[in-house]
Amino acid sequence: MKAEQINELYKLLNALREGVITDAQFDRLDAWLSSDEHACQVYVDYVKMWAELESFQTAAKPGYDPLLADSLQPDEKTVIDPHLWRQLAENERTAPTIQIEKHIENEPVEPIVFERIKVERKVSKFSIFTVVFSAAAMLLLVLMVKLNPIRPTVALLTDSINAEWLNAKGKPFSNDVLKQGDALTLAKGLVEITFDDGAVVIIEAPAVIEIESPKSMFLASGKVSAVVSEYAIGFTVNTPSATVVDLGTEFGVSVEGDGQCSLHMFKGKANLIAGQIGQKRTSQVVAENEAKSVDAITGVIRPVQFFRKGFVRRIDSASAFVWRGQNLNLADIVGGGNGFSEGQYGYSVDPLTGLMNADLRFGTRKVEARFIPVPDCSFIDGVFVPDGEKEVVVSTQNHVFKECPDTNSQVYSPIVNVPVGWGNTIETTRLHFGAEVYGGAARPAISMEPNLGITYDLEAIRKTLPEGVTIEQLQAICGISSEVIPRWNMNVKASIWVLVDGQVRYEAVNIDVLSGKHNVQVELSESDRFLTLVATDGGDRVDNSDANNHDACFFGRPVLILN
């Protein structure tokens, strides 16, 4: 169960115990317990805990009987009707008088004296055997409880990808419950464990761990990342050389073969306590985007380089998705990928047909300004050629770009996921600002020579992300490549726009080569649906013709910031 489910379950159990549960809540709880083994175990533990607390309260108040006390509390069923009281009173008034005879004291009676008779008792061998056998059974039961104590369920293995355990016997699978004291060695793959207190932990093989309690674990070696909700503040990861206590955070912990412990903070803060339990210990609070390590021998805490992508932070076995904290690359989606380096460089989207292919077609074409859906990629809602002389629709939900300027409705090239070294032919222009050359994995880029527009479907992208990962911001640099000057020796101009659901969130109007690069930062909320990137010509024409002036516009490093 997820942290939200555990919190909901405890709310239902509290309502049941206090007698305020509604019919809808009771039906929800009943259906839950009928279908979820882990929920049943939580229910049993809850009932046992409150039974013990009630017994303790009763023992602390001699003479107090909760059942009797409850029976003395009047309610709708125990209050007697006033009409019945009147009938009883009338019956008392009209009832005949009954004569009660007086008791006459009798003469003193001599006490009866009982003579004690000594009886010789014989103990049978069967009775002796029974006593000895019962004592032995009781001793055996005590020893079994001591040697094999009942261990409470404290966590659930909620997901896994290609997981292989060192000990195949009794290895846990997804949705298996984990008990206090379970020691596990993960040889390969990834697993997700949700603790009853609400913390969600991702374990990356190879790793050796022990489940300690609903809010703590021991990491002997390997790497784990933890997402700790507000309900689980105080979740603890113990290691051979240090202890990490969260303060409402998301963090990663690694333990090397020599016992050295490292803490990397992704969100919030955590307390890093160096040294072993029982020895002199020191501590430091580690803040977001910081990393500290603890020497296994000296216990000294030192700063180390922070690695945001150094830990697996979310997994989804249904889609085989593994997230290490990287941002989503919009250029990769133009290449037919999912935003995480699965797209093809040199792949493009044709603004005339909406088709995606590697057949790059260049040449000036005048296109009717209309929105074209892209059937080959669910992440791209569609493409269009902007021209403010007409209504510019920018999404399948008919959002309109009202501020769009008038253009000549011409395009020269498709929308391209730029490859490394792109620009070796006369049809293409290498994209760069000074020494920064864009294209490929190091500096991904989308080539968008005017007049072009592309709209991404953020909701479709969100559905592929693991639970808890959100889209927070668009970041990119944009401009006109400085390669235009030596190649074309012309003063080109263009305008670049960023829209969210048809509303302008960023604009760089009539920029030229000398303008350099422009930083784009657009905040995004969970309610935002469509993200649109647009490039329009700046009104500059060649020899007073309708041809665009090779305005080599592009978006460099266009990413969605995930968190």
Structural write-up:
- The chain has 563 residues and is an alpha+beta fold.
- The chain has three domains: 3-60; 153-314, Jelly Rolls (Sandwich); 326-562, Jelly Rolls (Sandwich).
- The protein is 20% helix and 32% strand.
- The chain contains nine helices and 33 strands.
- Strands 1, 2, 3, 4, 5, 6, 7, 8, 9, 10, 11, 12 and 13 form a 13-stranded mixed sheet that branches.
- Helix 2 crosses helix 3.
- The longest helix is centred in the first third of the chain and has 24 residues, at 37-60.
- The chain is elongated.
Considering the chains and any ligands shown, give keywords for the structure.
563 residues; alpha+beta; Jelly Rolls; 3 domains; eight-stranded antiparallel β-sheet; 9 helices; 33 strands
Number of strands: 33
CATH class of the largest domain: Mainly Beta
Largest sheet: 13 strands, mixed
Mean pLDDT: 81
The outline comes out as elongated
From the alpha carbons, calculate the radius of gyration and give it in angstroms: 38 Å
Distance from N terminus to C terminus (CA atoms, Å) equals 22 Å
What percent of residues are in strands? 25-35%
Oligomer: single chain
Which segments are poorly predicted (pLDDT under 50) over 5 or more consecutive residues? 55-82, 541-546
Helix content: 10-25%
Do you know the CATH architecture of the largest domain? Sandwich
Q: What count of domains describes the coordinates?
A: 3
CATH topology of the largest domain: Jelly Rolls
**Treating each run of at least 4 consecutive H or I residues as one helix, how many helices?**
9
* Helix/strand class: alpha+beta
- In CATH, the homologous superfamily of the largest domain goes by the name NPCBM/NEW2 domain
